[in-house]
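[09:14] KT: can someone run the structure on this one? pasting the chain below
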Amino acid sequence: MDYTYTNSTDIMKILCSDPKQQYREYKEKISAVIDNVLEKGIYINGLELHAFEKEFGEFNGSDYCLGVSSGTSAIEIVLRALKLNDQDEVITVSHTAIPTIAAIKLANLEPKLIDITSTFTMCPDELRKAINSRTKAVIVVHLYGQPANMDEIVDICEQSSLHLIEDCSQAHGAKWKNQNVGTFGIAGCFSCYPTKNLGAIGDAGIVTTNDKDLHNELMLIREYGWNDNRESIINGGNYRLDEIQAAILRVKLKSLEEMNLKRRLIANTYSEQLPSFCERPLINTNAFHVFHLYVVKVPEREKIIKYLNKNNIYPGIHYQKPTHLHSAFKNIETLNMTKTEEIKDQILSLPIYPELEIEKVNYICEKLNAFSSKLL
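[09:31] RB: done, structure tokens below
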């Protein structure tokens, strides 16, 4: 879909996210690296993958980095590499993308779901209450681009000798007290789905760690448990990141900090111009938020969505139904879900991506301000 814009009355369509716009931004560079990979004829486990792993590890301040097939795969293979017993508990939040919990189930472990704080991230107090003798790991989700409270969560995990895994799927480049997410726990797991802050053109993921032994185990699991002689010494699988996606991610990684700053500029514009009925996201003062999503809380959400759609604005909802309310996960143990269930009918994700012009952000704010009188 082509987009044109000169003033607020122009016909346009503004999507919540638009990876095709980013492709156009980097089209020449992406086409060049794809051609280079195709000409070399090495499409799996080649120089592009190794270079990307080195570059992202350096960017993130991690000793080791592993390219994998998706963010879901990243979480799954980390849990498998920890060699936990079947039915051991892994605590995480219900207010997250389904893959966080699906990966726990794929690793034959039991999720236990807890509530969030007003920042949409894991509540440390609820984490303390949830730990028991079966608990072996915690997956903290840095949701929407904002880190969770890592001071408290790290302390809790250390006190209880729990493995801490970070789901950084929406938080490439985010920091807690100037330390990159993905460096606090035993491993950081990143999705590079096309709409992410660092997005491929297809599925892709990353694992970061400072633990050499864990990295070596992940290397085996990623590709059939093969050693250098292609002997399967453990039961692994196919979780590889291909050369083309690695090459594309290398192109975009060079601009990741710039793209994150553009997201923050859009977020600041929203925060300054939105009407009072849009409750802005609460940002922790210790966090460097990279705004994968800009999520507000609103009254009469469906009415607002219909109004915005009539004005060619298409927001999203992340997430309309918490994980524990999906039929596939109805038997998962959950604790207090007060905040999670309170926000599910209020949250609204406004359009945000680096290529979104500020004029269009102004237009969205203009329309929402015009809607204010309809709520009186």
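[09:33] KT: thanks! The mean pLDDT is 95.
[09:34] RB: yep, looked fine to me
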